[in-house]
């Protein structure tokens, strides 16, 4: 008897189509994938679009903690050994298409299909590197440079292929939350970037490569930041910190 060879698993096809335990969902801007406090019973794979992850404190203050784009998983905390409630809210920034995968189906395919578990691990590691880069950004960089980095990430500089250049529509209030400053400072920096030729704005923000060069080469012009003045000598970023910072702009670094 001839033993039939098992068909090779296609991770891309799995994430592109509906099937047992998974379905494709469409979300309009400002609609939520899930909300803080919901049961953590599924994982989403973002097929197209941009989303943000936010948390709300007991006092009602909201903070944006992450930006997600095409190719990211959303809500992977559902895979914890003891599933509980969502600790954050994921919301579409622009129209999104996503694959909703039930917790049981996600766990099954991770155990059975090694090519899929390898892909999932790579994406999660890249997310971890971005989170570390975000922390380094908060510790060592001015709010002006943090804003520049967020704009570059949203324009997808550093990803394979040509960058989008035009970033999704996002409010200055959201940008201020993400970099830990005020809306007026964001407005000031955006006007400054435009005068320096780093961005254009005509209904949508277009990011130029000159901003990428200025950030990666640490050649931002003399800044008017919201940092205190005086005899303060901040500790320079280490080489490891610089690598983490670069990793935040280069999601393909593990490939």
Helices, strands, pairings?
Layout: H1 11-16, E1 22-27, E2 32-34, E3 42-48, E4 50-56, E5 62-69, E6 73-74, E7 89-92, E8 96-102, H2 103-112, H3 114-140, H4 143-154, H5 172-179, H6 183-195, E9 199-201, E10 205-207, H7 209-216, H8 239-247
Antiparallel strand pairs: 1-8, 2-7, 3-6, 3-8, 4-5, 4-7, 9-10
Helix pairs in contact: 2-3, 3-8, 4-5, 5-6
Mean pLDDT, to the nearest integer, reads: 82
Question: Termini separation (Å)?
Answer: 41 Å
List segments where confidence is low: pLDDT < 50 over at least 5 consecutive residues.
224-241, 250-255
β-strand percent reads: 15-25%
The count of helical stretches stands at: 8
Q: Based on helices, strands and strand pairing, what is the structural class?
A: alpha+beta
Shape: globular
| Tally of strands | 10
- Rg: 20 Å
Query: Order of strands in the sheet with the most strands?
Result: 1-8-3-6
- Tell me about the largest β-sheet: 4 strands, antiparallel
Helix and strand sequence? HEEEEEEEEHHHHHEEHH
Account of the protein in words:
The chain has 255 residues and is α+β, with helices and mostly antiparallel strands. It has helices at residues 11-16, 103-112, 114-140, 143-154, 172-179, 183-195, 209-216, 239-247, and strands at 22-27, 32-34, 42-48, 50-56, 62-69, 73-74, 89-92, 96-102, 199-201, 205-207. A 4-stranded antiparallel beta sheet has the order 1-8-3-6. Strand 4 and strand 5 (62-69) form a beta hairpin. Helix 5 crosses helix 6. It starts with 10 loop residues before the first helix and ends in an 8-residue tail after the last helix.
């Amino acid at each position: 008897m001839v033993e039939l060879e098992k068909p090779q698993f296609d991770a891309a096809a799995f994430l592109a189509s509906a099937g047992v335990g998974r379905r494709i969902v469409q979300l309009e801007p400002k609609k939520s994938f899930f909300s803080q406090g919901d049961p953590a019973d599924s994982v989403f794979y973002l097929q197209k679009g941009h989303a943000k992850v936010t948390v709300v404190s007991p006092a009602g203050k909201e903070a944006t903690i992450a930006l997600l784009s095409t190719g990211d998983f959303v809500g992977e905390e559902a895979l914890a050994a003891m599933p509980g409630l969502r600790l954050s809210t994921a919301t579409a920034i622009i129209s999104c298409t996503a694959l909703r995968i039930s917790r049981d189906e996600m766990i099954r395919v991770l155990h059975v299909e090694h090519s899929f578990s390898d892909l999932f691990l790579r994406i999660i590691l890249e997310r971890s590197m971005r989170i570390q880069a975000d922390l380094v950004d908060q510790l060592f960089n001015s709010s002006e440079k943090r804003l520049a980095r967020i704009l570059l990430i949203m324009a997808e500089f550093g990803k394979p292929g040509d960058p989008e250049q035009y970033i999704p529509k996002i409010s200055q209030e959201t940008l201020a939350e993400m970099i830990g400053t005020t809306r007026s400072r964001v407005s000031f920096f955006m006007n400054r970037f435009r005068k320096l030729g780093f961005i254009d704005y005509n209904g949508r923000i277009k990011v130029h490569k000159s901003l990428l060069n200025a950030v990666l080469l640490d050649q931002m012009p003399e800044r008017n930041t919201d940092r205190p003045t005086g005899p303060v000598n901040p500790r320079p970023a280490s080489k490891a910190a610089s690598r983490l910072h670069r990793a935040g702009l280069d999601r393909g670094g593990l490939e």
